[in-house]
Amino acid sequence: MIPALVTSLAASILLLARGVWRIGYGARNRNWIEAFYAFLSIGAVSFIAIDLIHQSRSLLSIHLEIYADVGCLLLCVLMTYFVFRTFTLHGSAKALRRSAHSWLLILVASFMTSWTYHRIMVRSLGVDFLGAAEVLPGILEQDRLYVATTDAGACIQLYRLETSDRQFEEYASLLEDKQNGFSHLGILRQDADKMANCHGWVFTAGRFLLKGTDVERILCDNSYYIVADPKPGDITIYRNDVGGILHTALVQGVLIDGNVILESKWGVDQRFLHLPANQPYSQFYDYYRTTRPNHLITVRESSLHDD
After folding, report:
1. Which of 43, 57, 72, 234 has the fewest CB atoms within 10 Å around its CB?
2. What does the alpha-carbon distance between residue 221 and residue 234 come to, in Å, rounded to a whole number?
3. Using an 8 Å Cβ cutoff, are 132 and 280 in contact?
4. What digits encode the pLDDT tens for the residues 93-111?
5. Distance of CA 238 to the CA centre of its chain
6. What is the pLDDT of residues 18-37, one digit of tens each?
7. Vertex 273: Cα angle to 270 and 277 (nearest 5)
8. Contact (CB, 8 A) for 267 and 174
9. Are β-strands 187-190 and 159-162 bridged in parallel, bridged antiparallel, or unpaired?
């Protein structure tokens, strides 16, 4: 999904640049150029239509989904019309500046650029906090009342998820869809809660959300090392194909046949007992052990809170 977003962003920027060029320098009747930009608009607007429908469905209750679908489709039809209508206009820059369609093209392209950039940023946050390219069900805010540090003194940012009970309940109800059918392979240990993600459950006892990028610092500073023979109390770190941390799990046991039993919280969803491969994040993982007595990072009230 991220490559499609990046492609859509690039197409939107080109459309915006084309609109600005037209009112600045005019437009000649070059059909191949217009056909090229028309093709870009089809791709960008089509993807944005799909993305808008998906997002509106995740935010609205079921009985309102049809209105969201119709509204998004109408919006995208209008956007497509204005883009194509503008490409049929040719003339001097002065003439095009007097045309409302020229300015509508710039407005539509600006919206498309802003929306796709916003979605890339949101999905990047989703990867950091949920371990998958999933939309966060609310607004992520840095916790100002508490600060956290590693054993080496490095600061670890703590986060909370601000969302309404209705929005979070609807998000949690879609667990099976979001987890790609993996949930039936695990044993449910706890229902969904918004207090912590997988990293926060392991390193802050379920009190906060942590970024996956900060887990790398915790592993380095808190004396973790990779082991080939996991034991209860070790942790499992899942990574993507370029080494980024997606998920953290706790080793709860090793069976006689050598199968490892993990427990982990799937984003801000439920918590499961599961085999290492039976999760929706990655098949690239390592077991880590520490010389420390536990996995908790140091969390204390901030000096600002004390004042």
Report:
1. 43
2. 16
3. yes
4. 787 788 777 787 788 778 8
5. 17
6. 778 778 877 776 666 666 76
7. 105
8. no
9. unpaired
